């Protein structure tokens, strides 16, 4: 049984923070739980921001309620950690004591021209609202970055009937999905007349205020420029502690940090595996898995799941794409069923290490089915 007097504080109220709060209660913790959170719009999921909210305000994500969790909420950014005295300081002047701490401050969108007017990003509700309003008055859109976020933003602009140019130094989704699926994605974009430009050097926003992008020395005018070029972990507020690292807060398999009784989960983390593997997995299911493990750690209990989950989903111009298994994908698939052209295919890659990646490309397949197919290989 968890120690009922243990005061657990969670910092950050997106999917990692909220999952950690829910897991604390699910594990039987009846003691005090506090949340420190910075977003003025409260707790909400981000995936709908780039898929639905840019098309229509009716697509704004619904906020999560914490009412059933008996959480003491401080709505103010954490600005400092005193790990000796076990206190988190907030912008509003609060000093919040903890016995165990879960850091879930996520990441923010990386900007290419932060000092200039007119660069759009999509990370928060406010970002999405501002971009949606701007799209209403626009007649052309340029997206820098052909990763999953850039393609979702391009898809939303395309759905609004706007001409879209997407620029990257690599083919669409190449780094995650490899050449075979990247070509399928590129074909889908071409068929919809989304202009995909392959640059030899990184594109940059041009003008101040921004009025387009410069690609390999050539200016392309666009009413709206959206940068989808990755994210920066929010850990500067931990400066002066062992946890501030530009790569993210380093965590082990228990989601423990190098500071006693401090755990971390989600996009703010940087994994350092016992096997020497390192890296970030800034995706939803991974944040959920880590948050559950971090919550168990904060209570001194065994976790109920592994600290990783390789289910990922996105949307390519209205075709839902769901993936279970290791990425990136290399070479041709081992099996294909259905039609990629019609966006109704299931593809499988059997990897040399015995694992399998299963991809539903537009095909309607439940996540449970994909997980079972992927697990069948092991
Ligand atoms: C537009 C968009 C679409 C996405 N779509 C998908 C998808 O389809 N599939 C998928 O797998 N993943 C998707 N992702 C990724 C997924 O949403 C993230 O992996 C997930 O949100 C990470 O959750 P998190 O709680 O770790 O961090 P975040 O979501 O970044 O949340 C961190 C929270 O901490 C708060 N915070 C930050 N600093 C402080 C501070 N100092 N004090 C207090 N609070 C603080 C922030 O306000 C924020 O609420 C998408 C991401 C975006 C932005």
UniProtKB/TrEMBL annotation:
InterPro entries: FAD-oxidoreductase/Apoptosis, FAD/NAD-bd_sf, FAD/NAD-binding_dom. The keyword Flavoprotein applies. Gene3D superfamilies: FAD/NAD(P)-binding domain (3.50.50.60). PANTHER family: APOPTOSIS-INDUCING FACTOR 1, RIESKE DOMAIN-CONTAINING PROTEIN-RELATED. It comes from Rhodococcoides corynebacterioides. Keywords: FAD, Flavoprotein, Oxidoreductase. Transmembrane segments: none annotated. Residues 7-291 form the FAD/NAD(P)-binding domain. This is FAD-dependent oxidoreductase. The keyword Oxidoreductase applies. Its cofactor is FAD.
């Amino acid at each position: 049984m968890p120690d009922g007097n243990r005061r657990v504080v969670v910092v950050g109220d997106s999917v990692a923070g909220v999952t950690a709060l829910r897991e604390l209660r699910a594990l039987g913790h009846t003691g005090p739980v506090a949340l420190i959170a910075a977003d003025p719009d409260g707790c909400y999921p981000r995936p709908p921001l780039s898929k639905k909210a840019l098309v229509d305000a009716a697509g704004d994500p619904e906020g999560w309620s914490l009412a059933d969790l008996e959480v003491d909420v401080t709505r103010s950014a954490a600005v400092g950690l005193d790990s000796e005295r076990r206190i988190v300081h907030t912008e509003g002047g609060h000093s919040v004591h903890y016995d165990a701490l879960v850091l879930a401050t996520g990441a923010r969108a990386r900007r290419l021209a932060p000092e200039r007017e007119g660069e759009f990003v999509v990370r928060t509700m406010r970002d999405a609202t501002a971009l949606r309003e701007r799209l209403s008055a626009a007649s052309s859109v340029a997206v820098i970055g052909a990763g999953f976020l850039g393609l979702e933003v391009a898809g939303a602009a395309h759905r609004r009937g706007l001409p879209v140019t997407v620029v990257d130094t690599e083919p669409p989704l190449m780094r995650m999905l490899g050449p075979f699926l990247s070509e399928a994605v590129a074909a889908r974009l071409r068929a919809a007349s989304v202009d995909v430009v392959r640059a030899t050097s990184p594109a940059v926003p041009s003008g101040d205020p921004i009025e387009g992008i410069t690609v390999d020395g050539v200016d392309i005018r666009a009413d709206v420029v959206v940068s989808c070029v990755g994210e920066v972990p929010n850990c500067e507020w931990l400066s002066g502690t062992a946890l501030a690292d530009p790569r993210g807060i380093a965590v082990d398999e228990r989601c423990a940090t190098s500071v006693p009784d401090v755990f971390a989960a989600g996009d703010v983390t940087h994994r350092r595996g016992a096997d020497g593997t390192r890296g970030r997995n800034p995706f939803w299911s991974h944040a959920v898995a880590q948050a559950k493990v971090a919550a168990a750690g904060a209570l001194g209990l065994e976790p109920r799941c592994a600290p990783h989950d390789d289910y990922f989903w996105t949307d390519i111009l209205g075709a839902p794409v769901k993936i279970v298994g290791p990425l990136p994908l290399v070479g041709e698939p081992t099996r294909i069923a259905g039609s990629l052209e019609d966006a109704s295919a299931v593809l499988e890659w059997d990897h040399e290490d015995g694992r399998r990646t299963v991809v539903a490309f537009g095909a309607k397949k439940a996540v449970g089915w994909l997980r079972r197919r992927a697990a069948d290989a092991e």
